[in-house]
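User: Design a sequence. Structure:
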């Protein structure tokens, strides 16, 4: 029993098996391919770097600084963004968002700009904070797209035209 535990044959077999399993864990792209039906879309997110044939390096594009910048410039609205925009714009009102978009984008203080009698103090503060959140999360351009592309919109023609105009300027 005073033998080194690593000298036993079973230990070497277990270590080899664990090593092989761990290596397969480091090849997520190949392991995930059979389980993803939308593989073409997924291939855009993961990119194998062929410069290192022995040690494949995987770059998750949407987590790199370049990928994040591309996602910001991407005008596609994801499901999560759509839900968030629906909730935020529903809370503040699409017309309120459009009417105050330029003023907020230009750094004006909306509490001084909006007449006090239009909304209660709490309602105004809530609307302004949600408008700020849309800008803070870089959803302002996507919010304009969401408004322009909304089906069955209850906005009047002039508000929709304003949304299209703001969208052209923002792009």
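Assistant: Done.
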């Amino acid at each position: 029993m005073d033998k080194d535990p690593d000298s036993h044959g079973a230990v070497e077999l277990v270590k080899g098996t664990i090593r092989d399993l761990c290596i397969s864990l480091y090849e997520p792209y190949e392991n995930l391919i059979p389980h993803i039906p939308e593989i073409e879309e997924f291939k855009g997110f993961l990119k194998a770097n062929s410069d290192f044939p022995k040690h494949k390096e995987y770059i998750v594009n949407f987590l790199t600084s370049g990928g994040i910048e591309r996602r910001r410039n991407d005008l596609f609205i994801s499901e999560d963004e759509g839900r968030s925009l629906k909730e935020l714009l529903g809370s503040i009102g699409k017309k309120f968002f459009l009417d105050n978009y330029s003023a907020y984008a230009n750094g004006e203080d909306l509490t001084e700009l909006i007449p006090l009698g239009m909304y209660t103090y709490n309602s105004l503060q809530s609307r302004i904070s949600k408008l700020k959140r849309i800008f803070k999360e870089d959803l302002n351009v996507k919010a304009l797209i969401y408004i322009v592309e909304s089906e069955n919109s209850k906005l009047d023609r002039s508000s929709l035209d304003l949304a299209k105009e703001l969208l052209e300027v923002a792009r």
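The two ends are 74 Å apart (CA to CA). The chain has a mean pLDDT of 77.
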